[in-house]
Design brief:
Shape: globular
Number of helices: 6
Strand content: 5-15%
Distance between the termini: 35 Å
Number of strands: 2
Order of helices and strands: HHEHEHHH
Structural class: mainly alpha
Strand order of the largest sheet: 1-2
Helix content: 55-70%
Radius of gyration: 17 Å
Largest sheet: 2 strands, antiparallel
Length: 183
């Protein structure tokens, strides 16, 4: 099975938590002038902007591992989700977000480990550069579309750079480790 029902539930929970965390940072232009309250439009906009980079990142790890013949499952990381919510509640100026991970059964060897590890950040790189390219080549974007692309670009740039840091537990460490084992 490509994706189990439980994984779909985990992705929906992850998306909802990401949207909740980001909805006060990522607002539609009209929302800046509204009284503070739960705004479903900001929630949906935050989900559309922030969640794809995270969910697609993890699914890329999963499907790449499956392509090599491994069993891979998307899981939520409750501590990471609750840490993100807690930081929002205390109005932290920064966000630490580790909402989920892909458990891969079996030992990946050398270059396979590097490819599986790089698959997630590669999605962020594509979303970052794709958004950047559209923003720079399209001159008649609607304001909401331009905002969506700008925020998608920024979030995925940060996710790519952050995930490629070559220290444990980041993907960059797994990429580098696999490449070193290759030689």
């Amino acid at each position: 099975m490509l994706i189990s029902l439980l994984e779909i539930v985990y992705m929906l929970i992850t998306t909802a938590v990401i949207a909740y965390i980001f909805m006060d940072y990522i607002k539609l232009p009209t929302a800046f002038f509204q009284k503070p309250k739960f705004d479903w439009n900001n929630f949906k906009f935050a989900a559309l902007v922030a969640a794809p980079g995270i969910i697609l990142h993890e699914l890329s790890h999963k499907f790449t591992a499956m392509g090599f013949g491994y069993e891979a499952t998307f899981n939520i990381f409750l501590f990471g989700l609750f840490l993100g919510i807690f930081l929002k509640w205390i109005k932290s100026p920064f966000i630490i977000l580790a909402p989920g991970y892909v458990a891969i059964m079996g030992a990946q060897i050398g270059i396979q480990n590097s490819i599986i590890a790089f698959a997630g950040p590669f999605v962020n790189l594509v979303l970052w550069l794709g958004s950047w390219l559209i923003l720079n080549k399209s001159h008649k974007l609607k304001r909401k579309t331009a905002l969506f692309l700008y925020l998608t670009k920024q979030i995925n740039m940060i996710l790519f750079i952050f995930n490629m840091i070559p220290i444990p537990p980041f993907d960059g460490y797994q990429v580098l480790s696999g490449l070193i084992r290759l030689f």
